[in-house]
Design a protein that fits this description.
Tetracycline Repressor, domain 2, mainly alpha, homodimer, DNA-binding
Chain lengths: 189, 189
DNA sequence: GTCTATACAGGGATAGAC
DNA sequence: GTCTATCCCTGTATAGAC
């Protein structure tokens, strides 16, 4: 009750989550060790296990956080005050770090994540919400709703696959080629 | 000189590679242990390190093999004796184990693979050859070559992304929705 | 809350006999 | 070529002091 909004303890907790988010993006969950999280965050061993009973608990917190942040950024683009066609184009041409890969999508290849329902859930939610938002925008461009839903899945997929191709070839432009190829199709050539 | 084409030793080597291929598909390279490969293949510890000096050497052999096999299967579909339009459709609607993910594409999220140029190379080759073959087929449908190349990247990306979405949602149909959404666009609605 | 010390299984590999 | 025994390091914690 005498505390400010964020106690000193919360600072360590936040630093742990942030460091875990970064490392998960770089190397995945399974391949990230508690020691790496400690080194990155500057937090001590004792503190980690004070704030999180296990690596799994930290992983869940970090994945949830990443998922929320990524969804918020995507929805910000899709809900801008502009014509639907422009919002769709803005989503597809958004600046992305192609060689780093998608912070969320890449987790679907992580064995620790896929083996754990609580880690999978934020990922499922992210893509469900993203595809739904895309379908809404696409429907606003005048496409029937059932067509819009399939097309929204295609749009989300081309971005995820663009990341895969970019990383596979060490070529950041592969993502742009994939999305621009789809945009041409969407805009009727 | 007195040997048959495949010596008894090759049998163990082959079983190790096959087991590694399966395990890499299931769990990735980094998360697969030599012990798992031994258990799966039925080969003994001594034999593993007789045939492959390190886990890395086994991984390179297994990834190369997987890449060759996957490319051969894809090209078989794309080079059938049928109209280009049908071959493209056959590629997109090919039976795929969506929830298992792509044996090649998934490796782009593996930290061990991405940190090693020799492991990355077969993956790069696979997608380069796949996109080139797709571009040829698409060009045969009457599309200008530069457009065909971008479009080929889009096709490969939608398949890869479809896998990601399917695994993310635990929904095998997500892959079909992604590819059928693309097919509608390709066939001019 | 944070620290240092300790524990112990498993990963990745070597040694040397058969 | 294959086997068993052994090795050292790191991942993932637990214990208990400060």
């Amino acid at each position: 009750m005498t505390q400010t909004g964020i106690s000193r303890g919360q600072a360590a907790r936040e630093r742990l989550i942030t460091a875990a988010q970064e490392l998960f993006w770089e190397n995945g969950v399974a391949a990230t060790t508690p020691r790496q999280v400690l080194a990155r965050s500057g937090v001590g061993h004792g503190s980690l296990y004070h704030h999180f009973p296990t690596k799994r608990a930290l992983a869940i917190a970090a994945i949830q956080r990443t998922s929320e942040q990524a969804l918020a950024r995507a929805l910000a683009v899709l809900n801008q005050d502009r014509p639907a066609r422009e919002r769709l184009r803005a989503f597809l041409t958004r600046q992305r770090d192609a060689l780093a890969g998608c912070r969320i999508g890449r987790l679907t290849a992580d064995p620790d994540v896929m083996a754990d329902a609580e880690m999978r859930e934020p990922i499922r939610r992210y893509f469900t919400a993203l595809v739904e938002a895309l379908a809404t925008v696409i429907a606003e461009t005048g496409v029937p709703l059932t067509t819009a839903t399939a097309r929204a899945t295609t749009v989300a997929a081309v971005v995820q696959g663009g990341y895969v191709l970019a990383r596979a070839g060490g070529d950041a432009h592969a993502l742009e080629r994939a999305t621009s190829g789809l945009m041409d199709l969407l805009e009727g050539d």
